[in-house]
Amino acid sequence: MIRDSQLFQPFNDEPYTLVTESGEWVGTFDLDLDADTLLRMYRDLVVGRLMDERLGRLQRQGKISFVAPTAGHEGAHIAVAHALESGRDWLFPYYRDIGLLLAFGLPPAEMFAQAMATRMDPNRGRQMPSHNGSKALNIFTIASPIASHIAPAVGAAISMKVRGSGQVVVTSFGEGATSEGDFHAALNFAGAQGAPVVFVCENNRYAISVEYNKQTGAESIAAKAHAYGMPGYTVDGMDPLAGYYVMREAVDRARSGLGPALVEMLVYRYGAHSSADDDSRYRPREELEAWKRRDPLQRFRRLLEKRDLWDDGAESALRAELGETFAAAAREAEEAGPVPLEWMFDDVFAERPAHLEEQWRELQD
Amino acid sequence: MAVQTMVQTIARTLDQEMGADERVVVLGQDVGKRGGVFLATEKLFDKYGPDRVIDTPLSEAAIIGSALGMAVHGLRPVAEIQFSDYVFPGFDQLVSQVAKLRYRSGGQFTAPMVVRMPAGGGVKGGHHHSQSPESHFVHTAGLKVVFPSTPTDVRGLLRTAIHDEDPVVFLEPKRLYRAVKEDVPDDPDFSLPVGKASVRREGDDVVLVSYGGSMAETLKAADALQEQGVSATVIDLRSLMPWDKRAVLEAVARVGRVVLVSEAPRTAGFMSEVGATIAEEVLDMLLAPPIRVSGFDTPYPYAQDRAYLPGPNRILKAVKRALEY
Q1: Is the pLDDT of residue A2 over 70?
Q2: 3-state SS string over A107-152?
Q3: CATH superfamily of B2-184
Q4: Angstroms from B63 CA to nearest CA on chain A
């Protein structure tokens, strides 16, 4: 059953925006976050952007094989991370979530180690870049098959409900994922169970090259929630605070037993789908430039500046600090060394069975 | 000991495991009040309630995918797929998520879960209630696959599967659900290892290897051979991944003749793997080539299913060929 919300009504026609492009707060309620919180959010936005840039450079230098660019999604990322309790709640993310993972606590060195497949990667070098995971941080290891992680997220949420753990799951995906059968299977089950899970669609209007209007005839992704008996909200995902407040409400609802919600964040990916894609074949440059004027970092920075919380000096100091931190983290990750050949045969099962032992011996001969 | 059918044994084993460990939950279509369409979860709902016996929507992807999430969060789910023929909407969950989770997360996340499904033919159900999909699962690294054929083996292996730290696809020969009653051990700790075959008959003239539903016809063929003065060793593989290579190779090396019986389609079926392994490892001990008796490479037929299934006559013909080679 869809219940009334506190600040935000579901199935809104216009996406929720709380901060204008010039940094003006236009919410109908007071911005109740203290300066430290706002500054932490801004820092996380910049962290996401700079990591994306650095991974792109590493890919072009041939140090990593692949990257899924995330610039333009950072507003949605920090909105999700700051609405959750890191270390308690769970994330089932997808591969365009660099900023989300870092804001949720993933150490930069682990990000690099995963991308370079070195011994420091807790996933033991098993997946291509942009596919992190961390049991220590309750971050379910990312998989490539689109939407395949959504039903597992629902299962974890049902477990939380059954065990009364008070935890919440967020699972994120692009709008292309909503066309998969697994999206329907998962939201349908979550609705029937009232599971504490928030579905976050980072709608950047392109599934590789396929545009939104070829993906679905639905007016919005959020509208799909109605059929599953849960609220759906459409949010300006380039406005980090709008995303944050909607997420906070959706997470609170889920935690208090009111069930799942679907939050659609309207974002834009500035880069190509991946380092293997050429987006000039299908996207006009002007469209990109128009979306960049709504950039989440600039918008948030203007808000801070209007409140005398930020200036050029602080910006250069932060960028310099992060540049050094990331350089050191990348070095640390690389120095851990490549994963050994034998690891190929580990973790198929808890123990290595006889036939894999034989195959490992055969490879050594 | 209690005299039970296979399907009664499943319900009883689930009951004991749920009683012993509150992390064990059962989920699937109609597993609740209905007790499962075959009654494999009978009475569990009344005893353990809707939080532990979860009637799911009609969605195999939701059943298998959510079972994985439950396992990751610390439960021990036993999912039921109503017929193995209906697993395919959830096949991506098994292949992409369940099978690979331990590997792709570097051992951080694991999937201690069981996916039970009735499989195989002989119930006049046409191709959508009769298939033998085991090779799909065996060919997906990261899944354990068992296919027992007796109530006692079901009891021992289901318990082991629930306790296993890795995902187990638990195939149940539905035409044997109620075909046999036998004394099944009461001991709640009774268990059998995954990956260990069972020798059902000892003999010196030919080795018959089978598993699942075809074990019934294989044993009938062995009885008929006995009357003709031919003694057969009969091996029930019980587990297909991992499978008991040693038991098969030792018997074949000793006897020199082997017939491989499975009702699944022949090409790239599991017995092709067994035959290839025999050829690679004990070729010089063979007195005849390994011969397969199998289903055919057609969709499972409706009207002609008795001819499709490898019955005793087809098995006997293959044995004759092996003996006369």
Answers
A1: no
A2: CHHHHHHHHHCECCCCCCCCCCCCCCCECCCCECCCCCCCCCCHHH
A3: Thiamin diphosphate (ThDP)-binding fold, Pyr/PP domains (3.40.50.970)
A4: 8
Using a CB-CB distance cutoff of 8 angstroms, which residues of chain A are in contact with residue B109? 133, 135, 140-141
Q: Where are the domains of chain B?
A: 2-184, 198-324
Beta-ladder partners of B169: B115, B145
- pLDDT band, residue A4 (cuts 50/70/90): low
| B 205-244 residues inside an 8 A Cβ radius of A | 242
Q: What is the DSSP letter of B133?
A: -
- Interface size A-B, in CB pairs within 8 Å, comes to 149
Read off the tokens for B306.
Answer: 């008795």
Q: How many CB atoms lie within 10 A of CB B106?
A: 22
Residue carrying the six token digits 């490539």: A144
Contacts of A125 in chain B (CB under 8 A): 106
What gap in Å lies between CA B308 and CA B293, rounded to an integer? 10
Query: What amino acid is encoded at B135 in this protein?
Result: S
Q: Given a cut of 70, is residue A3 above it in pLDDT?
A: no
Kindly state the DSSP code that residue A103 receives in the 8-state scheme.
H
Amino acid at B97: Q
* Nearest chain B Cα distance for residue A139, angstroms: 10
With contact defined as beta carbons under 8 Å apart, do B212 and B236 qualify? no
Contact A321, A38 (CB under 8 A): no
Q: Is the pLDDT of residue B4 over 60?
A: yes
**How do strand B182-184 and strand B2-4 relate by DSSP bridges?**
antiparallel
- Per the prediction, chain B carries an average pLDDT of 97
Task: Look at residues B109, B124, B122 and name the one whose alpha carbon lies nearest to residue A132.
Answer: B109
- Residues of chain A with Cβ-Cβ distance to B93 below 8 Å are 148, 151-152, 182
Contact B104 A181 (CB under 8 A): no
**CB contact set of A252 (below 8 Å; sequence gap of 6+):** none
Residue A195, classed as helix, strand or coil, is coil
User: What is d(CA B278, CA B274) in angstroms, rounded to the nearest whole number?
Assistant: 6
**Omega prior to A296 cis, within 30 of 0:** no
Check: CB of residue A221 under 8 Å from CB of residue A263.
no
* B108 with A188: Cβ contact below 8 A: no
All domains of chain A in start order, with CATH: 35-364 (3.40.50.970)
Who contacts A270 (Cβ-Cβ below 8 Å, separation ≥6)? A69, A71, A72, A288, A291, A292
Task: Scan for tokens 């970092």, then name that residue.
Answer: A297
Tokens linked to A278: 């050429």
ipTM: 0.95
Distance from CA of B183 to the nearest CA of A (A): 32
Closest Cβ–Cβ partner in A122, A141, A151 for B65:
A151
Q: Which residue of the set B128, B129, B139, B163 is catalytic?
A: B129
d(C-alpha B66, C-alpha A144), whole Å:
18
Contact criterion met (CB < 8 Å) for B104 and A155: no
The H or E element spanning position B239 is strand B239-241
pLDDT attached to residue A1? 42
CATH 3.40.50.300 correct for B198-324: no
Q: Express each pLDDT in B148-177 by its tens digit.
A: 999 999 999 999 999 999 999 999 999 999
Reported as a single tens digit per residue, the pLDDT across A285-294 is 999 999 999 9
